[in-house]
Amino acid sequence: xxxxxxxSGVIRLFAIDLPSDQxxxxxxxxxxxxxxxxxxxxxxxxxxxLDDDFIEVFPVADLEGxxxxxxxxxxxxxxxxxxxxxxxHLERVKGHVxxxxxxxxxxxxxxxxPRSPLRHxxxxxxxxxxxxxxxxxxxxxxxxxxxxNIKPAKKKPSQAAMxxxxxxxxxxxxxxxxxxxxxxxx
Length: 186
What we know:
Helix content: 25-40%
Largest sheet: 4 strands, antiparallel
Radius of gyration: 23 Å
Structural class: alpha+beta
């Protein structure tokens, strides 16, 4: 399984064939000494470099109602036609899974050699926004045409940014509510 340099938009899905009580030890990296780290997940993946911030390990049971297919399509922008091609495999996955996003490889070219307890299920290619080039309008695009005071349109916040704001407001509200309860109770 080759990972090209600067790969983007690829998600690799693996089943983790381990009992639930062994998942935390498998996922965790441990520093043995100054120049040696032991990380069973990285070793089982056969990766030279792996950024923990761009992998997900979770039990499929946590996706109750949504399912693995729904999580991939709605949560990770995997095209539905790719999911439909492997839906029979996705429905049979039990236990814990590992999602490895392209960013986990830090832009480095490497070959993966996954081995037990990892079992490759599928590789998905997320849809990116297609790049299109349209000719610029004649007069307004010219430098020095008197439009130097035009400000660019403000970018609409992403769903992730909006979710983060909502979560922040909810936490602040819970903090204030908890403080109010403590104040009233004292």
